[in-house]
Amino acid sequence: MIVERLRVGDRVSVQELVEATEASDMTIRRDLDFLAAQGVLKRIHGGAVSAMPSGLEPPHSLRAQAAVAAKQAIARAAVEHLHDGETIVLDSGTTALETAKLLHDRAMTVMPLSLHVAHELADAPRIRLLMPGGEARKGELSLVGPLTVASLRALRFDAAVLSPCAFSLDAGLTAFDLGDAEVKQEAMNVATRTIVLADGAKWDRAALAYVCPAVRPDLIITDDSAPEDQRILLTQRGGLVEVAS
Question: Domain HTH deoR-type, which positions (predicted)?
Fold first, then answer.
């Protein structure tokens, strides 16, 4: 919540956070100190200001702790659309990681686009794990670059499960990193169908690198915090939206 408020207003006070969360003054100050150590904000007297440019991706460790219940619900809905025996390319991102956790007992072939996801599936007894080449981005551990793209182009998948950084009706699917956007594009090109995982916090936002139009995926799975008017408009434009509960 602190990170989201800083994206909107660039400044937060300890007092307003105490009132909004009903947490103690000490807890809020600890959280602000933690975020300051991550480089997300700068502490000022009585609060904090944003230290993160709008084009900078929030750290993976912070995103992994945000909207966990929504991401888990989206992941549960996503695996209902994946079937044993299929070949799946599974994106980087925290919602994709939650999806990987639910595939342990499934029998399918998976190519992960993240070392986080690969590690999660490494000991899954019935998963055939195909590793792409490429460069692991620092912190994110997502795989990018010409070797990753070449690995994708050599194969065909039943489904690409993607987790974009941002999503809007006008800007479409976007990513903070140019290499990440290219990998997502190629994953869609080599898959029969594309399933996009986007919790409500990603809606009506845009990042630097364009991936595809909003109506390009075959299915978008979100949660009920996604703006209802945006969901309706996307459906009217031909998109298929599923709201996970």
Answer: 1-50
How many other CB atoms sit within 10 Å of the CB of residue 244?
Answer: 19
pLDDT of residue 129: 98
d(CA 164, CA 211): 8
State pLDDT tens for residues 68-90: 889 999 999 999 999 999 999 99
Query: What's the pLDDT band for 123 if we cut at 50, 70, 90?
Result: very high
**Residue for token pair 């990681």:** 97
Domains of the chain, first to last: 1-54 (1.10.10.10), 63-243 (3.40.50.10470)
CA distances (Å), 153 to each of 68, 85, 186, 194, 213, in order?
Answer: 33, 21, 7, 16, 21
Q: Where are the alpha helices (DSSP H) in 49-105?
A: 60-63, 68-79, 94-101
- Read off the pTM: 0.78
Tally of residues, the chain: 245
First to last CA, the chain: 21
Whether residue 52 is predicted with pLDDT greater than 90 in this model: the reply is no
Give CA separation, 44 vs 23, 131, 156, 243, in Å.
Answer: 20, 45, 52, 40
Alpha-carbon distance of 174 to 139, in angstroms, equals: 19
